[in-house]
Amino acid sequence: MVRKMQAAATLKTCEQLAMPIRNLDMIFAPRSVAVIGASERRSSAGRIIVDNLVAGGFVGPVYRVNPKYTSVGGMPCYRSIADLPEAVDLAVICSPAETVPRYVGECGRAGIRGLVILTSGFREAAPGGKVLKEAVLQSAAPFEGLRIVGPNSLGIMAPHLSLNASFVSDIPPKGNIAFISQSAALCTAVLDWALQENVGFSHFVSVGNMMDVGIADLIDYFAIDRWTRSIILYVGSITEPRKFMSAARAFTRTKPIIAYKAGRFTGSAKAAATHTGTMAGVDSVYEAAMKRAGVFRVYSVEQLFDCAKLLSQQKTPSGPRLAIITNAGGPGVMATDELLGQQGSLATLSDDTIEKLNQQLPPVWSHGNPVDVLRDATPERFQSSVELVLADRGVDGVLVVLSPYATTNPTGTAAAVVQAAKHASKPVLAAWMGGGRVREGTELLNAAGIPTYSSPEKGVRAFMNLVAYGRNRETLYETPREVPIEFPLYRAKQRSLVTTFLSEGHDVLTETTSKAFLQAHDIPVIPTHVACSLAYATECAARVGYPVALKVFSPDITHKTHVGGVELNLANRNDVALAYDRILKRAEELCPEARIDGVTVQRMLVEPNSRELIVGAKRDPVFGTVLMVGAGGTTTELLRDLALELPPLNERLARRMVQSLKSWPLLEGEPGRPGINLNRLVEVLMRLSYLVADYPEITELDVNPLLVTSHDVIALDARIVVDHDTVLHPVRPYSHLAIRPYPDEYTKRIILKDSTAILLRPIKPEDEPMWHSLLACCSPESLHMRYRYMFKASTHEMATRFCYIDYDREIAIVAEAEEDGQRKLLGVCHLVADADHHEAEFAILVGDPWQGVGLGSVLMDYCLEICADWGIRSVVAEMAPRNARMIRMFTNRGFVMDRSQSDDVVIARKRLSPLILM
Q1: pTM score, two decimals?
Q2: What are the two backbone dihedrals, phi and then psi, of residue 350, each rounded to the nearest 5 degrees?
Q3: What is the phi/psi pair of residue 430, to 5°?
Q4: Are 117 and 135 in contact (CB under 8 A)?
Q5: Between 148 and which of 212, 334, 381, 418 could a Cys-Cys bridge form, CB atoms 3.0 to 4.6 Å apart?
Q6: What is the CATH topology of the domain spanning 480-526+605-741?
């Protein structure tokens, strides 16, 4: 019994980690507010804020601060912050810009840790803006934990606390949507709309210039807010991409974020040096980043709130199969047309469902989907139809469409649909068509959480939004299979091989050097020879064998085809001679300033079922390196059939990229024509991902074309662009990526005291099957010790919480061993840091068969080393009071035990001395 009790100290998953996001409670849940710059002038910002706080019903004291007044609005006004009678949580600053740095310092000295700065004039483009911004930051620096929203903010609202610290007079209803906006103008428009439509909010934030509190901080804070069930995000640009990706990925595990990105068609002013750089525009990278973070993107402001309510209230469908129930044939056809146009699927009802509907409906009903319950349908007929269709396994969701005939009871039917959907595990949506007659029914449906639309088409589009959201979340947490090829990475050796390539002195590496770079990373390339004369070109052609391809060789010509610098399928010596002259002549005419060093010669690969792709990478100014795969060859930019993804890639993400291409059906093959070797292509994409992750010196990379056949993948041409400043002045590893790659630096081998060879390494999504097996070999008591609740079996949803992790915020070290030729996980130690990397929660699970051999101690000590390496200040763990063995392990390592919180939990805590900040 004691042995099994070693199994676990308890850990919350990352999204459950309920530590406050460094003093943001002082801003969004203050007990008292001071308005700095309060005024008697009713049109002034200071008076508007005071009036809004009072009129909004804020229950705490509202202090006025302004040396010009003794009273404001009939209440005392204090000359300075130091004169306030008590400590204040939140200060709202609306004084002139030049006074703001002084007031920030005074707030810090007074112990105020929450600031909202409404004053404008701090943008770097504004006169003196940069100086003012630096002055504010210097004033705030001495005060740990001082948080600032703004400057240039419209303000904040927290309707559940009746807090209106903004320029907008009317506070919206209480709700469960948090609104975060970079546009103050949009904030006012959205508030007007929300008041008109009676849409409620949990919080409303105008972020302003984001001097301190950014979008990622707010997402983290609202993730643990009890009122917030979804976030609406209006974003013009992301300034801290890595923090944004981490925060968004944590939030969207359980709750939706809906984003509208402004400035979709803003292009880069700098011409790209490669095809990848040309094609991967700013907006397409935002699209890829949001999809990777699980954020649902909309393309109009009107969609924002519909999607926010829909995704937060409705269950995610398991597929696109929609059943339509209607009392009119025409609207049913309209819904069907829209569904098929949106690539949805009209659900096929089972024979059993059809038979049951036959028993409930008049003989002349439609006998299929759409289910036409006829114009005289009663509420009871609607209800029974909805219940029967929802029970059909072939149905993923139901849209109920009502047309208000003279015999129709819209309100009664709405009540019946609410009753039918009460315990449904599938989404139910409604389209109540008409005006005044259907209004009461519409309100009844909306109040019950059934989204209601004015037309069938809108209802179908809403359902397809649910489908798209569900597909993206499912793909993000789909269990990847292990790549069936050994995937060794010899990074130190590879770095030594390519150091000379990077120091060539050219921004654009030559084709041969670029190919050598790829080859050093086990990406197959076709042998290429450089010929500086016609005689050597013909000699090389004879050596490699006809037919051959010739391409211009110049450090100054980026796109060879643009200058006629490529000649293909040259069958003999005479063809080579003519092509050599044509290439040099055209290059000299079209690029007279370019240095022409000759041509490259390579054998033409003749493969009957081959396809040409382009793969590449570019350095995005916001999200860092981004990867691309698309239709390649000479029509690359014409077709623009491409997919983007942020590195690092695993097998699942690489496969998804390829299968998302419009040309995937051609790549997949068909009867009589084999498809491409997808596994080999996936491996090449993953190797490319490792390459660009390991080399921040690379700003752009093209492999075009990449020839893909039924048995192999080979690079026919390549071009790499490097940043020589990074070559000369190395940067922090992975700082050029928005997502932290797999931390294989935390991999090491040890021998246990029973001589078992163990591999300690971070967990990865591919480990899910072994993770399930580990849990299966644990006793119910061991599992209860670890997870603090009883469950019959582990599920994929559980695994996504513990195997699919953000290595910037958490890490799980597994102990892997081989038994009887099979790899197994013997135990796992999990660390989850708070958003500020100050504190980490710790938990450990050792499988029952491997307890008592020192594995728990090994895992614990190794994770504590990692905590110090991360810069974690303190570690905390929870465990049951009867878990004597675990308590002893913590006590022996200097943890302080706290039994005061509850009779059924012991909290262990230890302060650490950080070694290295990551």
Answers
A1: 0.86
A2: -70, 160
A3: -140, 150
A4: no
A5: 212
A6: D-amino Acid Aminotransferase; Chain A, domain 1 (3.30.470)
